[in-house]
Write a structure and sequence with these properties.
single chain; about 500 residues; alpha+beta; Butyryl-CoA Dehydrogenase, subunit A, domain 3; Lipocalin; ten-stranded antiparallel barrel; seven-stranded mixed β-sheet; 8 helices; about 35% helix; Mce/MlaD; MlaD_Phospholipid_Transporter
C-alpha cells in the first residue's frame, strides 16, 4: 500500500474521531419561557449562535445572537425563566476542546443584590485565554520539528558528512586506545618509582611525614583517575570527549607529581623498614596490581560503549483519552529515542490535561437581630475545569516483555512498569506525585495494537487503542477513560517528511 493511501487513511481516521467527539459533546436543552440579558466581550471566537449557556455546569439557556457593537461583541443570552441572576453575576467564555469550540459560562452572583430582568446587561465579564494561541504555538513547534527532521534527513543523505562522522568516531576510538597506552606507561613509571623508594636504606629523617603524604597524594590522584574513567562508561558519546580531556589534564598533573617525587628521591634515602617489609598501607599498595587491572578493564568498556551508542531510533506517539466522568479529553504527545541495542529508551512528552479549579468569593454583611448587629459571611465556591500543560521526561530499561520506567511523569517524580504478556497487548501502571495531600496519583491502563507488524506496509500497523483508570487511589477524583493513538517510527517519519510543507 502506497504512502499516499496511508496518509489518506490516517487523515480520514482523525476526521472521523473529530466528528464523533463533536457529536458526543454537543447537547440540547428545552428552554420553555425565557428572558434575555446582554453581555459585552472582547473576544467571541469559538462561540456560535445557539451555543449552550451553563450555570454550575448545568445547561440554563442558549446564546441567541452575536453582534458587533463598537470594538466589542454583544452577546444576547436567553435564560430560562426559573433561573435567577443577580446584578453581580459574572459571564465568561469556556473552551470546550482543543478544536476551539466554546460555550458561555455564567455565575449567578452572590444573591445579595437586585435581580436582573429581561433586557438588562451583565456588568461583570471575565475574559478567557484564546485556545488558538496555544494551537498556534503547537503548530510552530510542529513546524520546527519538521525542519529539524528534514535537516537531519539531509544530513544522513550526505555521503561526505557520514564519512566525516565515521572519521570522528574512529579518531575518538584511537584516542581512547592512546590514552590507555599512556596510562599503562605512567602506571609502570609510578610502580618503578615506588620500587626505587622501597630499595632505599636508612632511617626516616625529620621530613619523612611530608614525603609519605606526597606519595599518598600520588595514589589518590591515580584512584581519582580510574574513578573518572569508570564514570565515562555511563555517559553519552559527547561526554566521552569531555572525559578524555579530563584524563589528559590528570595525566599532565600525574607527570608533574611523578617528576616531583623523582626530584625529591634523594631526600627520602632513609625510608626503609616498614616499606621494605610490606607492612602498612604503603607497603601493601606496592605489591597490589588492582589499579592496573581496573584501568585496562575500564578502557575495554569505553571501546564497547563507543560501538553501542552510535545510532538512535526515533518514535513519535500521539494519543487522546476521553475521561468518562469529566467528559473531557487528556491529550498526549511523546518523542521516544531508542538506542541501537534496543535494551532501553528515553522519552520526552507533553500532556494537555483537564484540572478542576475551585474559586471562592466571600461576601460580608451586617445582620440586625434581638442581640444587636453582628457580621455574617457568605462563601460561594465555584468549580470548573481548566486545561493545564504538563510534561514527561523518562528513562526506561527493557528486559524482554518487562519494562521499568522512571523520571518525571506529569511534571512530578514517578515510576512506571510495562508488561507485554502477548505480542499485541501492553499492560501498564504508573505511580507519581508522591507528595500530594490526597495521596499518590496511580494510573493503570492497557494498550491493544490490532494490526501490529513492524515489518508490514499496512498504514494501520501503529494504530492502537487504550483504556484504564486515572487517579485510582482518590475516590473523589477517580475516572475511567478510553482512547486511541498512533505511533510512527523514524522509518515512517522519513517517508512523511517529503509530504509536509515547510513555511
Amino acid at each position: 500500500m502506497s504512502r499516499y493511501l496511508s496518509i489518506g487513511l490516517f487523515v480520514t481516521l482523525i476526521a472521523t474521531a473529530t466528528v464523533f467527539y463533536v457529536l458526543r459533546t454537543s447537547s440540547t436543552i428545552g428552554l420553555g419561557e425565557t428572558y434575555t440579558v446582554y453581555a459585552y466581550v472582547d473576544d467571541a471566537s469559538g462561540l456560535l449562535v445557539d451555543s449552550v449557556v451553563r450555570l454550575a455546569g448545568v445547561d440554563v439557556g442558549r446564546l441567541a445572537s452575536i453582534e458587533l457593537d463598537g470594538n466589542q461583541a454583544r452577546l444576547a443570552l436567553r435564560i430560562r425563566r426559573g433561573v435567577q441572576l443577580y446584578e453581580d453575576a459574572v459571564v465568561s467564555k469556556a473552551t470546550e476542546s482543543i478544536l476551539g469550540t466554546a460555550t458561555v459560562s455564567i455565575n449567578a452572583g452572590s444573591g445579595q443584590g437586585a435581580l436582573l430582568q429581561d433586557g438588562h446587561q451583565v456588568q461583570h465579564v471575565r475574559q478567557m485565554a484564546n485556545v488558538a494561541d496555544a494551537v498556534e504555538s503547537a503548530n510552530q513547534l510542529a513546524t520546527s520539528a519538521t525542519r529539524l527532521v528534514d535537516e537531519f534527513h539531509t544530513f544522513l543523505q550526505d555521503g561526505e558528512t557520514v564519512d566525516a562522522l565515521n572519521d570522528i568516531v574512529a579518531v575518538a576510538r584511537e584516542t581512547a586506545f592512546s590514552v590507555s597506552m599512556l596510562l599503562q606507561e605512567n602506571l609502570t613509571i609510578a610502580r618503578d618509582t615506588l620500587l626505587t623508594i622501597q630499595s632505599m636504606t636508612g632511617r626516616v629523617d625529620a621530613g619523612a611525614d611530608d614525603k609519605l603524604a606526597m606519595v599518598q597524594q600520588i595514589l589518590e590522584s591515580t584512584a581519582q583517575l580510574t574513578a573518572r574513567l569508570d564514570r565515562m562508561v555511563g555517559e553519552n558519546e559527547s561526554g566521552i570527549v569531555r572525559s578524555i580531556e579530563e584524563v589528559e589534564a590528570n595525566l599532565v598533573a600525574l607527570r608533574d607529581v611523578i617528576a616531583s617525587v623523582q626530584g625529591s628521591a634523594d631526600n627520602v634515602s632513609h625510608i626503609t623498614g616498614v616499606v621494605r617489609d610490606g607492612e602498612g598501607n604503603l607497603g601493601q599498595l606496592i605489591h597490589d596490581d588492582e589499579l592496573y587491572t581496573r584501568a585496562v578493564r575500564i578502557t575495554e568498556k569505553a571501546e564497547e560503549f563507543l560501538d553501542a551508542t552510535v545510532g538512535m531510533g526515533v518514535q513519535v506517539d500521539f494519543r487522546s483519552e476521553l475521561l468518562m466522568d469529566q467528559v473531557e479529553t487528556k491529550d498526549r504527545f511523546d518523542l521516544r529515542l531508542v538506542p541501537r541495542t534496543g535494551d532501553r529508551y528515553y522519552t520526552f512528552g507533553l500532556i494537555n490535561t483537564p484540572v478542576p479549579v475551585t474559586t471562592e468569593k466571600t461576601v460580608e454583611r451586617d445582620v440586625t437581630g434581638t442581640g444587636g448587629t453582628s457580621p455574617e459571611q457568605t462563601v460561594t465556591r465555584t468549580v470548573k475545569q481548566e486545561d493545564e500543560m504538563k510534561f514527561n521526561l523518562q528513562m526506561a530499561r527493557v528486559w524482554g516483555p518487562l519494562t521499568i520506567r522512571a523520571g518525571v511523569m506529569e511534571s512530578t517524580p514517578g515510576i512506571g512498569i510495562d508488561i507485554s504478556p502477548v505480542k499485541r497487548v501492553m499492560l501498564s501502571g504508573e505511580a507519581f506525585d508522591f507528595g500530594a495531600d490526597d495521596g499518590i496519583y496511580l494510573r493503570a491502563f492497557g494498550q491493544f495494537y490490532p494490526f501490529y507488524d513492524p515489518e508490514s506496509n499496512n498504514p494501520l500497523q501503529w494504530l492502537y487503542f487504550t483504556g484504564g483508570v486515572d487517579d485510582a487511589m482518590d475516590v473523589y477524583h477517580r475516572d475511567f477513560f478510553l482512547g486511541a493513538g498512533v505511533r510512527f517510527t523514524d522509518h515512517d517519519l522519513r517517508g512523511l517528511v517529503g509530504f509536509i510543507p515547510v513555511q
